[in-house]
Amino acid sequence: MSATYNFCAGPAMLPQPVMQKAQEELLDWNGQGVSVMEVSHRSKEFIALTQQAEADIRELMNIPSNYHVLFMHGGGRGQFAAVVNNLLGEQGKALYLVDGSWSSSAVDEAKKLAGDEMIDTLNIIEKTHGVSHVVLPELSELEQEYRYLHYCPNETVDGIEIFEEINSPWPIVADMSSNIMSREIDVSRYGLIYAGAQKNIGPSGLSIVIVRDDLLEYPQLPQPSIMDYRLAVKHDSMFNTPPTFAWYLAAEVFKWLKVQGGVAEVAKTNARKAEMLYDFIDSCDFYENRVAKDNRSRMNVTFYLKDESLNEQFLAQAKAAGLVALKGHRSVGGMRASLYNAMPLTGVEALVSFMKDFANGNA
Ligand code: PMP
């Protein structure tokens, strides 16, 4: 079978060596004669796995010791709710920056749980001649007291990424579901970082939460115990049975990332991959991208065929060429190539070469 490159936004492709290892040891993990899916989460072997996973993510992201790392259920949306329930209390207010679909969904969930009046929002996208760009507000000028500021540094649907550091007088809560570990960040600038796993970490369902210890003292709202950060800390993320297989695969992805040279190294490749694709799109009249250069996502490259009547043909021929899941999100249309850590440079080369041929054949 020739190579298939999977550009799905999530669940996304995982590193091939990780998948191969999982396949090899699927029926016999750690010489125990059973699958990792079939062992107790409280067995010493599984606990060793979780400890290694935590040590590895701490090393990969350079997470300071006053932060906890939690492995929780419920993906990204689970955290839309957990953040509110754990950090807002009865009287707290929060500010949400809106730069696309997911930050907007986070606002909806927050308002549902805390009430409209407790959640302030600021739209930070401006459109000039159909091109979106991010305009960050001067937050120190705002009079209001907030428990936290929420934002989404990479909007998966819209293909918008914020590379600038945000200066906030309040703890920053960041939804890094689609760009965690894709480039180096300074964790100490954040109060809390969360991510659904199914892009750069592992299978869906799992979410990673990195939370500074003082935020655990915040007044909480009543909530299901399985979403409670304090209980998760107290029980080493095992208040109830965790998604063990997802955790195992995440642990393997972390090991793979270390072998690649860590986040700094994959970040270089990620920059090259994105640049190659954007440069090609810009050089060619047949396609267009509608995001300002400074805010173009390295993880989710959105683009449109100028003649949209060719969309179905483009997708069918791409699929026949082994380039799958290029359809843009239904809410925005067009195309989207997701280039997470596991996507090799050769995948992007193959995509650019296909796009070139398709443009020449249909010009
Ligand atoms: N936030 C972002 C930035 C996302 O990309 C997604 C999923 N694509 C979510 C949140 C929601 O994640 P989940 O489907 O795991 O709830």
- What is the H-and-E element order? EHHEHEHEEEEEEEEEHHHEEHEEH
Low-confidence stretches: none
Biggest sheet architecture:
7 strands, mixed
Which structural class do the helices and strands define? alpha/beta
Number of helices: 9
Give the second-level CATH assignment, the architecture of the largest domain: 3-Layer(aba) Sandwich
CATH class of the largest domain: Alpha Beta
Number of strands: 16
Note the gap between the termini: 31 Å
Give me the Rg, rounded. 21 Å
Strand order of the largest sheet: 2-12-11-10-7-3-4
Q: What does the secondary structure layout of this molecule look like, with pairings?
A:
Layout: E1 5-6, H1 16-24, H2 44-61, E2 67-73, H3 75-87, E3 94-98, H4 101-114, E4 119-123, E5 125-128, E6 131-134, E7 148-151, E8 154-155, E9 160-161, E10 172-175, E11 192-196, E12 206-212, H5 229-234, H6 244-259, H7 263-283, E13 287-288, E14 300-305, H8 311-320, E15 323-324, E16 335-338, H9 345-362
Parallel strand pairs: 1-15, 3-4, 3-7, 7-10, 10-11
Antiparallel strand pairs: 2-12, 5-6, 8-9, 11-12, 13-14, 14-16
Residues 10, 75-77, 102, 152, 156, 175, 177-178, 196, 204 line the site of 4'-deoxy-4'-aminopyridoxal-5'-phosphate.
Please describe what this structure looks like:
This protein has 363 residues and is of the alpha/beta class. It folds into two domains: 243 residues, Aspartate Aminotransferase, domain 2; 100 residues, Aspartate Aminotransferase, domain 1, CATH 3.90.1150. Helix content is 34%, strand content 18%. The strands form five sheets. A seven-stranded mixed sheet has the order 2-12-11-10-7-3-4. The protein has a three-stranded antiparallel sheet with strand order 13-14-16, covered by helices on one side. Strands 1-15 form a two-stranded parallel sheet. Strand 3, helix 4 and strand 4 form a beta-alpha-beta unit. Helix 7 packs parallel to helix 9. The radius of gyration is 21 Å and the shape is globular. It starts with a strand and ends with a helix. Bound molecules: 4'-deoxy-4'-aminopyridoxal-5'-phosphate.
